[in-house]
Amino acid sequence: MDPDVLRQAPLFKRLETEAAASLAAAMTTIHLDRGEVLFHEGDTGDQLYVVVSGKIKLGRSGSAGRENLLAVLGPGQMFGELSLFDPGPRSTTASAVTPADLKSVQHDELIEWLTGRPEVARGLLGQLAGRLRHANDVVSDLVFSDVPGRVAKALLDLASRFGEPAPTGGLNVHHDLTQEELAQLVGASRETVNKTLADFAARGWIRLEPRSVTILDIERVERRAR
Ligand code: CMP
Question: Of ligand 1's atoms, which has the minimum distance to the CA of residue 45?
C-alpha cells in the first residue's frame, strides 16, 4: 500500500509521519471488485473509508429505479464520515466503479484519535465545507445551467482528479464510467448526455473513447461550463 496516497487524505494531511503511520496501522484494508457494493443507502455504518486505489461511486436511488450519482471518488479521497458526525443511516450507496483498495477505520476509534488533534479535525471540517460548497453548486447548476453546461462541468471535475496529459496532446480523463453513469452524474437522460458529448466531439473539443474522454480544447470546455 502506498503511504503517500493515504497522506493526501484530509485525515492524514497535517499529520507527522509517525502519527500517520500509527493511524494507518489501526486501519483495515478492504478490496472491492468492479461493481461490488460496499454499503447501501439507509444501512447503519460505523466506519470511515479512504480510497487507496481505484474509483468508488456514491449514488442515491429515486423513484422508478432512477439513480443519481453524487460523486466519483479516487485515491486519497474519503467517505463515510457523515454518519460519524451526524449519527444516522448511510446517505448514499457506495460501490466500486473499478477494482478498488480502501482503508477503513471504526468511527469510535477515529473519535478517540481526533481528541487532542484539532488540526486533523480542522482538516475533516475543511473537507465537509468543500462538499457543501460543491453540493450548492450542483443544486444551482440543476436550476440555472443547461445540460451541455453541466456535462462540461462534470468533465472538468473528473479531469481535475483523473486527468493526465495524453501522448497525442490534450488531457485524457479515464473516468471508467458507462454512458449511463455519466448521465446519472450530470442529472440528465442518457440520450441527452450522449447527444451533448457527440456535439462536443463534432466541434473538436473532446475525443470520445470507451470509459474515457480526451479533452482537446480545455478553454472551450471551460467556457461552456460557465
Ligand atoms: P455516510 O452518510 O456515512 O455514507 C455515505 C457517504 O457518502 C457520506 O457519509 C459521505 O461521506 C458521502 N457523501 C454523501 N453526500 C455526498 C456528496 N454530495 N458529495 C460527496 N460525498 C458525499
Answer: 3
